[in-house]
Amino acid sequence: MILTSNLTAERIIEYLKEGKRFDGRKLDEFRELTIETGVSKNAEGSARVKLGKTEVIVGVKMDVSEPYPDSKDKGNLMVTAEFLPLSSPRIDLGPPGFDSIELARVIDRGIRESKFIELEGLCIKEGEKVWTVFIDIYSINDDGNLLDAAGIGAIAALKTARIPEYNEETGKTKFGEWSNKNIPLKKEVPISLTVHKIGNSLIVDPSKEEEDISETRVTIASCDGTIHSMQKGNAKELSIEEFNKVLDIIEKTEREIAKKIEKAITHTHCETLKKEAITHHEN
Amino acid sequence: MTKETHSSKEFKRPDGRKVNELRKITAKVGIVPNADGSAMFAFGDTVAIAAVYGPKKMHPQHSQDPERGTLRCTYNMMSFSVTERIRPGPSRRSTEISKITEWALKPVVMIDEFQGNVVDVHINILQANASTRCAGINAAAMALAHAGIPMKSLVQSVSIGKLDKQLVTDLIKKEEDWEEGEGPTDIPITFTGDGKISHIQLDGKITKAQLKEAVELAREASKQIHEAQKKALKEVGEKQ
Domain range spanning residue B83? Predict the structure, then answer.
């Protein structure tokens, strides 16, 4: 497989030293972010997120199951990710690789630790029945930074998810029918963002080429400046000074991205309502 | 007489379509920038996407065919594509459909000269309301064409159903679960450009005569699908 060549790597590093990138972005600048929700009808909630050419689809499904013994009055959360062979020539068929497992776990922790989902609100009968929220992430086109795209997608899918209809007598979920209730969520949204170190430069939202030569990365899920989870990936060390810079970059970009998510979701939500109103009218 | 009682005029489909009416087709080419070729094909709410990578060296080496190139298809449903979540990853069903898809496409794909190489076709179902394998095959054919893989023709796939005694084109889930009379029969069929059948499956109960009718019905529908595929491929050709 053709990975980024040494020559390209050298040029990228030279450019970064001068504060430049191949695609003309600043070091702390994201590619164009688009969020579309409601992309798969049978899902409780779903979203398609594009960061430049990178694309992921995230879906939320729910089902009723037994609670874990250590959290009898709380719903469960499960995040999985699949890097589809469809999304890149580099992905081979077979069981999930480390990257997709790590991605799912990083996204899971961001959502769990920030207590974004109020899991207490997903308890049906203490010790017996609770909702499980499944967040499933699929890559559609990998052009770098699936991690951040996945995190944004998870939030967008959760925010637009409806809880399925539940039959209390039979204790079963009525799949394909939805209540008018949403998943109970905190108002503050946890945003999971990653900073990469290439040479001596720190950048956000790497392209595939940049990601290939990234020496280390730090992913942080934060909510209004409060950090809820963090993961450093790859071996290269960071100085304390560099690490502090990472935190500054995260703080700045978190605000930007949060605004964009809020805007995209309110917008699409309005669009959906409009569409529903029109269909209703037509009927 | 029996035919009259089940005449198409009286028969009401759950979504109000005529018996030989396809759902709205949406077809788009070039949806995965990384891929050598890609396409989306939808029958109404059933949405399939396909991406092609290759020809490329087959790994591991012992899987290589020294005589001719290999076509390899994988069909996968996204966990949230159906109302009750399915476990992510391959299943017996998806393994079978992957193979069926390969067989449906093989007669038109001319990759004999790519000895030791593989052309990978990855199909994913984003949203399902029956006929997913057919949508997947239609998307795959377009993606292969988009990738510039030598082909004799495209292929078109459609499901014909028999609900009680009535034949209908392009089944939806509600029809797949038909409960009245003789119940449902599901017949997915794929045609090559010269009108030959490269794939057919059947579950249910049907007479020989009616099966012949079903094939005719599928052939008619395949022409409409072909138009939609050609249109989408032309659109992307004009853009480039």
Answer: 13-239
